[in-house]
Specification:
The protein is built from 18 helices and 14 strands. It has helices at about 15-20, 75-90, 120-140, 155-160, 170-185, 190-195, 240, 250-265, 265-270, 310-315, 340-355, 365-380, 395-420, 420-435, 440-450, 455-470, 480-500, 505-515, and strands spanning about 20-30, 55-60, 65-70, 95-100, 150-155, 200, 215, 220, 275, 280, 300, 320-325, 385-390, 390-395. The radius of gyration is 23 Å and the shape is globular. The two termini are about 35 Å apart.
Amino acid sequence: MSSSNPRHAVLGPHLPVLKGILRGIEKEGLRVDAHGELATTPHPRALGAPLTHPQITTDYSEALLELITGTHHSTESLIHELEQTHRYVACQLQDELIWNQSMPALLPSEADIPIAWYGTSNTGMLKHVYRRGLAERYGKAMQCIAGVHYNFSLPDALWDVLGTEGATLDEQRSKGYLALIRNFTRYSWLLMYLFGASPAVSSSFVRGLKHDLPKLDEDTLYLPYATSLRMSDLGYQNKAQSDLQLCYNDLETFLARMHAAVTTPWPAYQAIGTHRNGEWIQLSTNILQIENEYYSNIRPKRSTGRCERPATALAERGVQYVEVRCLDIDPLSPTGISAVTSRFMDTFLLFCATEPSRLFPNNGFCRDSHDNFNLVVKEGRKPGLMLIDQNKPKSLADWSAELMERMAPYARLLDQAYGNEHHAAALAEQADKVRDGNNTPSARILQTLRDQGISMHELALQQSMAHRDALRAQPLDAAVQQEYDRRTQESFIAQQQLEDSDTEDFSSYVARYHAALKPPPTP
């Protein structure tokens, strides 16, 4: 099939351009104590101010670390930076460690899960109140689920090479990235089969939730063929978002639907209100408080300034990169993601950007892709599993093998550009999982639980401790350690400057933030 596909051939004469691909990682991980219970301590001062530190912040909870890399032209430098940051954090945590599993550690009662705190600046309070709203809407436990976000951008010159339509470079970028997202949506079930690593969960996580998960042991629930319970509907019970379907056929329609979601009241949220006992508890009573509340496997992104709305930035300057959000933490990697996975992601995303990408019918919603994804997260390793491809049944095994074959030329092109064979090797490693589902992370985890007779919690704690010890055994060079210490101190100064420079009250700041959302362009 690869020899008859003309799309990858257009890249051949432009190999130097491929070296302009940029990738970055945001890796989440809960802080836990030596027993694997959620840390209820404040964000360690040794890690800096989470509002302003460029590499170490928090996500939903005060205990949910998020380690961020810069953008890199090579996988080697990307993983190296992520590993250095993990080493620094591991050495600073002392009696705590990072939980290197997507499904949460042992959680305290909802009331005792601490929401992230970012100081008293208006910017910090906006982040904090937004998280208060998430707690009101979805509960705190769900927000403690962790993952890896993979940011990816193509060099501007590549859009002309691909013949992407658009009167301006901004238009080309936006059309090109939306085409990538449509193909990603069609094929992202494959990522869950290959990299899903949460087939089981501690029984404590589902307390009070309706579920149909059988017991693997007294402390562990699972699904026998699941790949990623993290990406299933377990815990994600929210009627307001259930009918919200954004359209990736064109940027204008996408922005119009996002605008409607962040400006349309939802009765249940109106009943909660924005204040309780004189304190802010959510930023608005609309379907979404802000754009980031929309749960999606991939997002079109654009960097924003202070008080700038993401949707307005996209409308004014177009899509800048994509953020893949469906990757589970790799529990076998100290950094939560391996170089092999990164190289496969680059191959997969280049494939998605280059291959023909039909518009979605049905008002921009692809039901088959949605159903395929949900089926694979729950039953991806089931023998003979059938998916739907363009309204026709196709086995996961056959479709996976076909996609691997179609991606092979892209892996070779990347290897030619970088002068190695790493991408082809990464693709071959994934092909082994297609041939034998026992090689997938989800199957290996379940097999380990059975072989060792231990619970999911015990296994995750063992692996997290081993990763901590391995990271601490390789201390940073003195110069690198000094640079991290400098950034930590500078983050406190930057946060203080933000707090000192605020001249308006928080309610006025929130009003200005909402007003910064401009009406969407006409489709």
